[in-house]
């Protein structure tokens, strides 16, 4: 049994977030609380953590029972099926992060009158937020990857309400491993009978960066370039899917590359503390389907590889297989295997960098622009090596 649970007195005030490494910020505890005793507060790094009002809490422990990070993870018993897929429609493929797995899987749900609970970028507040999409035009706004932790808010409650009001329809919930697991735990604790009304889909995740760091970065860009951000992309395919371009548009015409932010992102300092201990960076997931980029497809199957993108689909359950069978006609499909598809975040969590504390100390004491300059720029020798590498690879 998890040590945390075994040591917790049955009727004491639950300890939800004294250890930041054990809280993924999925909002499940906040959503399940029958007395609304839990609020989500931002810490100094800009991540949300639950805070319990002890005067309102009735010590029912529903929050602990719903926390997917504080319980033992039991792997599924079904064999995982592995596929590489590319959407057959070129326009859809080009406008998707990889092979358009998200679009293909969600299309069938929408066509049957269902809905999609997913994250899309809110340009007013400059962060991705979860919404319920019931039309393809709205769903299309959720395409692409945003390297920022999404704001969940009341989406679990809204999705549950949608399920209640649409008993003959299906909901597809898609998020990172922790977000999808959080929603599954929420539904299990509300009423297990509703599990068969939801398709649980998670994405292969590198880690969740600080929303606060990102929004301050956006403010910095808008101030520096004298305009509002009107478009964000982290995986534009102008140079091919294997070399994605990250950029924003200021106004209608001015494009700004996000090289400093991307470098900091891949240095891993801005990730949530729980990401370095993520239990969902493996093949044993309690979801129906996992999707992501099929990195390395050009080596294991060069003929299937496309510069426009290729998705990896891992099917964990019979329910996931049923959904995939309904949608596979829109894809070019290659039957793959686990050995061929493995990538770092299917094997282990992203490693915590040794200089993480120094980075956040610099950020707190010296500000955003200082850390952008210190951590967001390549040294001269690194730039030279990269140019040489590209000359020989082109």
Structure commentary:
- The chain is globular, with a radius of gyration of 21 Å.
- The strands form three sheets. The chain has an eight-stranded mixed beta sheet with strand order 5-4-6-7-11-12-3-13, with helices on both faces. A three-stranded antiparallel beta sheet has the order 8-9-10. Strands 1-2 form a two-stranded antiparallel sheet.
- It has 16 helices and 13 strands.
- The model is unreliable at 1-9 and 380-384 (pLDDT under 50).
- The chain is an alpha+beta fold and 394 residues long.
- Helices cover 34% and strands 20% of the residues.
- Helix 5 crosses helix 12 and helix 14 (356-366) packs across helix 15 (368-375).
- Among the domains are: 3-66, Alpha-Beta Plaits (2-Layer Sandwich); 211-270 and 354-386, no CATH class.
């Amino acid at each position: 049994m998890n040590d945390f649970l075994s040591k917790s007195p049955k009727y004491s005030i639950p300890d939800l977030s004294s250890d930041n490494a054990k809280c993924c910020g999925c909002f499940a505890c906040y959503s399940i609380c029958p007395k609304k005793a839990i609020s989500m507060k931002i810490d100094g790094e800009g991540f949300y953590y639950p805070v319990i009002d002890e005067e309102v809490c009735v010590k029912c422990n529903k929050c602990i029972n719903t926390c997917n990070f504080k319980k033992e993870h039991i792997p599924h018993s079904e064999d995982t099926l592995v596929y590489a897929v590319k959407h057959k429609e070129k326009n859809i493929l080009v406008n998707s992060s990889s092979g358009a797995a998200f679009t293909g899987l969600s299309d069938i749900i929408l066509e049957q009158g269902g809905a999609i609970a997913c994250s899309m970028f809110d340009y007013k507040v400059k962060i991705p937020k979860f919404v319920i999409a019931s039309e393809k035009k709205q769903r299309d706004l959720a395409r692409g990857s945003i390297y920022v932790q999404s704001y969940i808010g009341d989406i679990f409650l809204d999705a549950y309400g949608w399920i209640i009001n649409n008993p003959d329809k299906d909901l597809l919930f898609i998020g990172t491993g922790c977000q999808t697991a959080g929603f599954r735990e929420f539904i299990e604790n509300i009423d297990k009978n509703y599990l068969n009304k939801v398709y649980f889909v998670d994405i292969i995740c590198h880690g969740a960066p600080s929303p606060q760091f990102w929004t301050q970065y956006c403010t910095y860009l808008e101030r520096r370039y004298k305009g509002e951000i009107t478009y964000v992309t982290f995986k534009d395919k102008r140079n091919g899917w294997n070399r994605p371009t990250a950029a924003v548009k200021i106004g209608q015409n001015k494009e700004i590359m996000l090289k400093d932010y991307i470098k900091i992102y891949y240095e891993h300092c801005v990730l949530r503390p729980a990401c370095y201990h993520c239990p969902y960076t493996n093949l044993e997931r309690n979801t129906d389907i996992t999707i992501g980029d099929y990195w390395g497809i050009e080596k294991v199957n060069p003929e299937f590889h496309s510069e426009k993108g290729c998705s990896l689909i891992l099917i964990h359950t019979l329910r996931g297989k049923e959904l995939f069978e309904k949608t596979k006609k829109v894809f070019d499909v290659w039957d793959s295997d686990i050995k061929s598809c493995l990538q770092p975040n299917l094997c282990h969590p992203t490693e915590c960098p040794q200089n993480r504390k120094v980075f956040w100390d610099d950020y707190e004491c010296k500000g955003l622009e200082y850390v952008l300059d210190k951590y967001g720029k390549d040294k001269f020798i690194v730039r030279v090596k990269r140019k040489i590498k590209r000359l020989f690879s082109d």
